[in-house]
Please model this.
Amino acid sequence: MAPTAIRAKLLKAHIIASDETTTRTNGFMQWQWVFLSSDAVLHKIASRRVRCVAEDVLRRHRTDVSASDRYSGQEELRREHQVCLAHVLSDVQYAIDSANTVFAPHIRDHLRCATKVGPRRDQLKDSTLAAYAAKADIMLDRLVTRPVAHPAGRALLKQIKAWRGKFFVILTNCDVPVTSNISEREIRPSVVFRKVSNGLGSDWGAQIHTGYHSVTGTARLSGQSALSAICDLVDGRFAVA
Model:
C-alpha cells in the first residue's frame, strides 16, 4: 500500500519535520499529524495529541534531526531537535508587548541574527558556520544568566532554558529548516478543509483524507502533479521515488 511505502521512505531520512493540528471526525475533535522529509510526506489522524502517535509513526527509528514546534511530545525522539524559531520569536514578542523591555528584546535580536544566517548557510564555509554557532551559544549563555525581574520576562526565561539546546542546530546543519513553515504549508489545506466542511464524517473518510494528502504531497516533492499521482495510484503504478 502507498502509505506503507511512503513511511518506509520517510524513515530513511536524516531530517524529519513534523506538525499537528486539530481536525474533526464523526463530530469529535481529533488530531491530524504530518511528518515529512525531502522525499516523503505522511499524514495521520489520531484521537489524541500524545507522544505515542509520533513513536508509532517512527517505530523507534531515531533520525538525526527533527524540526518542529515546541510540543513536548516530539522532544527527544531524534538525536537533535531544532525548534521553530518563528514560534519562539512569537513568544518573545508577547513578553515585549507585556512591557518586558530588557530581557526579551535582547533574546529577540539574538534569535533574529540566527534566522538571518539561515538563508545564507549554503554560501558559508563550515568553519564560518561553526564560529557562528559557538558565538550564538556563548551569547545565549550570557543572556540566560542575567537576573530577570519582570513576570513575563521570567516566564520567557524559563522557556528559553527548557529548550536551551534546540535553537541553533540550524547553524551546524545546513539542511535543517529555520522554521516549521514547510510542515505548516503541508497541513494547511486540511485546516481549510476542516473550516469549510466542519470536518470528516467517518473514520473511512479520515483514512481517505490522510492517504490522499500523503500520496499527493509525496508526489509533489518529485515534481509530479496531484492528478498524475492519483491516476497512478488507481492504476496500481504509484511508486515512491
Remarks:
- Strands lie at 15-25, 28-36, 41-46, 65-68, 80-83.
- Residues 85-171 form one domain.
- The chain has two domains: 2-80+180-234, 85-171.
- The chain has a mean pLDDT of 90.
